[in-house]
């Protein structure tokens, strides 16, 4: 019987009676991480703590810190002659601000257990995920010679600008010609119960600040002016009515939404010289950012607009179709939780958007997400060791050799 299966079969009521049972390593590490006040982009020593544990297992640590962001890339390969496959366990140590402290039932940076639930900032997003991953690898390496390479990619810049964290490390990997086969992101993916959902894709986000240029003048002399609002109106109607794609089995159709529209000087007798529009695409894998841009330009040009367009692209869509990683995740979740996870592609963005373009199959597997970013963020203690068992099961299926 492994330590894990013993821990899982240990009477939970007994476990709940003591805070510091040695059989709850994931709980212990989660608490230690919550106790480090890692407000984004401050790592507050979390990566050092994790790095120490990994180094003891034989991982090689590489610090790719940049612009005040801590980035840890830790790799383990038992046989350098056979480095494939490469699996990355990815996550972030930074947390969002607490909000008003007096609304928390306990100090957000002093982990507290109440009624079988662990409270603290980062409890679900995502210090428990990191702790569960570390402990899973500890158990795996204790009794198994692993195939290929295991890596941890941990950053302190996910909740903030997300410019110098995983995005940067992914760039470094690309420059080195490293193509990961699999990546598991430990974000809180579960909905109502642990393992009921895994995230297998996310939509892309493409936005534009569009300035339509005209010529200012008096409303009584329109022939001496050029009204940008009048020029924009039919083009905008066409953009709104356009079907960009039809989506697919995993994603809804690409959506176009205007968030801001402004024109005019405030005076009621002046034709404005320009009109400003801000719009955003949430797009699926049936379209690309370049295609969408080209189609927008075609509409604007068709209507004879003069304009200046500033685009911002914050994420490519990704979708992991059925492959070895999803099969391993489903099988492991089924074994630990007794259920088949829903494949989900909704929600906001995560660092998975930077890992998928490297060519990896990517899934997000983590605890229940109902309290993330909220007051009294929490995770169920019973879920901690089970989440770790899920990760361990995935690793054994993909990397285990007996
Ligand atoms: Zn997160």
Task: Describe the secondary-structure layout.
Blueprint: H1 3-9, H2 12-17, H3 25-34, H4 46-56, E1 60-63, E2 71-77, E3 86-92, E4 112-114, E5 117-119, H5 123-143, E6 145-146, E7 149-155, H6 166-175, E8 182-185, E9 197-199, E10 201-202, E11 204-213, E12 217-218, H7 228-241, E13 255-263, E14 270-271, E15 274-283, H8 289-302, E16 306-315, E17 318-319, H9 324-337, E18 342-344, H10 352-355, E19 361-364, E20 378-380, H11 381-399, E21 400-401
Parallel strand pairs: 3-7, 3-8, 8-19, 9-18
Antiparallel strand pairs: 1-2, 2-7, 4-5, 5-20, 6-21, 10-17, 11-15, 11-16, 12-14, 13-15
Bound molecules: zinc ion (ZN).
Zinc ion binds at residues 92, 125-126, 158, 187.
Say which molecules are bound, naming each kind only once: zinc ion
What share of the residues lie within helices?
Answer: 25-40%
Could you tell me the strand content as a percent range? 15-25%
CATH superfamily of the largest domain: Zn peptidases
Mean pLDDT: 93
CATH architecture of the largest domain: 3-Layer(aba) Sandwich
Which fold name fills CATH's third level, the topology of the largest domain? Aminopeptidase
Domains, number: 2
Label the structural class: alpha+beta
| Total helical elements | 11
Question: How many beta strands in the DSSP annotation?
Answer: 21
Radius of gyration: 25 Å
Alpha carbon gap, first and last residue: 16 Å
**Quick one: overall form?**
elongated
Using the coordinates above, name the CATH class of the largest domain: Alpha Beta
Q: What does the main sheet amount to?
A: 6 strands, mixed
Low-confidence segments, given as residue ranges, are 1-18
Biggest sheet: strands side by side, in what order? 1-2-7-3-8-19
């Amino acid at each position: 019987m492994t330590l894990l299966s013993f821990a899982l079969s240990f009477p939970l009521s007994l476990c709940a009676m003591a805070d510091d049972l040695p059989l709850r390593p994931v709980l212990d590490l989660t608490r230690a991480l919550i106790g480090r006040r890692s407000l984004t982009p401050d790592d507050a020593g979390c990566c050092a703590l994790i790095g120490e544990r990994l180094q003891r297992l034989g991982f090689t640590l590489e610090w790719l810190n940049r612009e005040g962001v801590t980035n840890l890339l830790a790799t383990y390969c038992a046989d350098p002659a056979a480095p494939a496959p490469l699996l990355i366990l990815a996550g972030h140590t930074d947390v969002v601000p607490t909000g008003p402290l007096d609304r928390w039932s306990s100090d957000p940076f002093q982990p507290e257990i109440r009624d079988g639930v662990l409270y603290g900032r980062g409890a679900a997003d995502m210090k428990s995920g990191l702790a569960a991953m570390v402990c899973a690898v500890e158990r795996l390496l204790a009794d198994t010679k692993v195939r290929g390479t295991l890596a941890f990619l941990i950053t302190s810049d996910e909740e903030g600008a997300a410019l110098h964290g995983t995005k940067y490390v992914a760039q470094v990997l690309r420059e080195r010609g490293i193509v990961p086969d699999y990546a598991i992101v430990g974000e809180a993916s579960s909905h109502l119960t642990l393992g009921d959902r895994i995230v297998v894709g996310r939509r892309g986000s493409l936005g534009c600040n569009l300035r339509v240029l005209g010529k200012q003048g008096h409303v009584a002399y329109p022939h001496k002016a050029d009204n940008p609002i009048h020029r924009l109106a039919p083009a905008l109607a066409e953009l709104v009515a356009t079907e960009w794609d039809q989506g697919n089995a995993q994603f809804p159709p690409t959506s176009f939404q205007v968030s801001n529209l402004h024109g005019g000087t405030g005076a009621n007798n002046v034709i404005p010289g320009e009109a400003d529009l801000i719009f955003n695409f949430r797009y699926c894998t049936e379209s690309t950012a370049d295609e969408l841009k080209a189609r927008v330009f075609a509409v604007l040009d068709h209507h004879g607009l003069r304009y200046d367009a500033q685009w911002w692209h914050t994420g490519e869509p990704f979708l992991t179709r059925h492959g070895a990683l999803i099969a391993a995740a489903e099988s492991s979740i089924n074994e630990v939780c007794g259920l088949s996870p829903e494949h989900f592609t909704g929600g906001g963005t995560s660092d998975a958007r930077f890992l998928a373009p490297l060519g990896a199959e990517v899934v997000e597997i983590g605890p229940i997400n109902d309290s993330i970013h909220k007051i009294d963020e929490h995770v169920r203690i019973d879920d901690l060791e089970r989440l770790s068992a899920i990760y361990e099961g995935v690793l054994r299926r993909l990397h285990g050799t007996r």
